[in-house]
């Protein structure tokens, strides 16, 4: 009994590639010999493969190598932590610093004064550390873990984080605080200071792309990632980046969290496009 | 002038000496890596993303990332698989970014995917239109089909190497390839029937 065309069609791609088994090949050939339609299908598939194999191949930019070299040179500073001896040295220094801070903290009595929530900055890892019971939005729930200038790093990827921030409301603990800085690529939070309501971030991978132009309405500008960068701040309420300008060798980004103008539970993400820079970025809440 | 020590080396064959020098951070080895793979990375990215500038940016990022992570590359692994894997991962990240921006701004990326060539007869096509029609059809494929067909039919890799790059079974590669070609056959109907 001849096999059904639908059964054979699934084997045609493998038949063209010569990837079928010793049993499958004669089955397909036998069917093709007696079925005009499948013969046509085979021809059409062959045409598709020919089109793909003959699609023009292009050369990458002739400046690619020099651009890559230039970028590597810029990043290869003496203080580059990828150097093994510096990595160990930095690790040792961090350990000493942490021990010192722990000692300092134990020696000091716990502060009595409660700082209002609006002066605090919380981060995703803070929230993750809290138990479910503690995750009820509460101004007193967050203590200043960053006051000592601790260095933290985490992997942030704008699509995931921004999407999480914008869409997964039910999974989030809403705080009356900005909870993250969105950035394209991996970022490192160098320091975060509660009293100044600031945190400093630096890109640690090659993208270096961030935003400095609030997307007006639904118009998205074309972003040339070789010359411009993308930055964003996400948070509950209505978040707005009000300025991004270089000063004192840093890029100062100030933002507002206008919770009063939003509905409870609202989350927004403010994105900007600015000229590409290697400067550390300081986010400051106004 | 010194001649390049790696001239004529088949990079995809993963010459152990070349890998050793690459891992040791030799500039000449890294330069050869870039020169040897830049067009492959660029073409893969261009066909995956459908955007010239983005593909150039991505190629630069792939090599910067390779430079940074070369010490984590295991000498027993296949260098070209490693590069292709990084390229595809970066491509997928960029697509996620596009999706994210689309959600935020409500604006869709204007690429070749919006072009419709399905019913146009072959004879009306110039070379460029033909390429655009194929590109549009590729862009419309699901991600897992797109990467397989790009690596197999455009980059000319074997199913075995594709399985290694994507970390999937050989049979899965063949299945996805069959689906991808079948979908392309349907979407390019008018073009391939002529």
Describe the structure.
The complex is a heterodimer of chains A (286) and B (194). Chain A has 286 residues and is α+β, with helices and mostly antiparallel strands. Chain A has 3 domains: 5-53, no CATH class; 61-108; 114-285, no CATH class. Helices cover 33% and strands 21% of the residues of chain A. Chain A has helices at residues 5-17, 24-34, 36-53, 64-75, 84-107, 124-129, 158-167, and strands spanning 152-154, 180-183, 187-193, 198-203, 228-236, 239-247, 250-257, 267-275, 280-285. In chain A, the strands form 2 sheets. Chain A has a 6-stranded mixed β-sheet with strand order 1-3-4-9-7-6, with no helix packed on it. Mean pLDDT of chain A is 60; it is low at 109-199 and 202-221. Chain B has helices spanning 16-23, 27-49, 52-69, 79-105, 127-139, 143-154, 159-166, 170-187, 189-193. Chain B is mainly α and 194 residues long. The N and C termini of chain B lie far apart (55 Å). The radius of gyration of chain B is 18 Å and the shape is globular. Chains A and B meet through helix 1, helix 3, helix 4 and helix 7 of A and helix 2, helix 3, helix 4, helix 5 and helix 6 of B.
Structural class of chain B: mainly alpha
Termini gap of chain A: 79 Å
H-E string of chain B: HHHHHHHHH
- Alpha plus pi helix count of chain A: 7
Overall body shape of chain A: elongated
How much of the residues of chain B is beta strand, in percent? under 5%
Average per-residue pLDDT of chain A, rounded, comes to: 60
Q: What structural class do you assign from the helix and strand content of chain A?
A: alpha+beta
Strand order of the largest sheet of chain A: 1-3-4-9-7-6
Give the count of structural domains of chain B: 2
- Runs of chain B in which pLDDT lies below 50 for 5 or more consecutive residues are 1-9, 110-124
The largest pleated sheet of chain B is described as: none
Question: Could you tell me the radius of gyration of chain B in angstroms?
Answer: 18 Å
Number of domains of chain A: 3
- Content of β-strand of chain A: 15-25%
Q: Please name the two chains that share the biggest interface, counting residues whose Cβ lies under 8 Å from a Cβ on the partner chain.
A: A-B, 52 and 55 residues
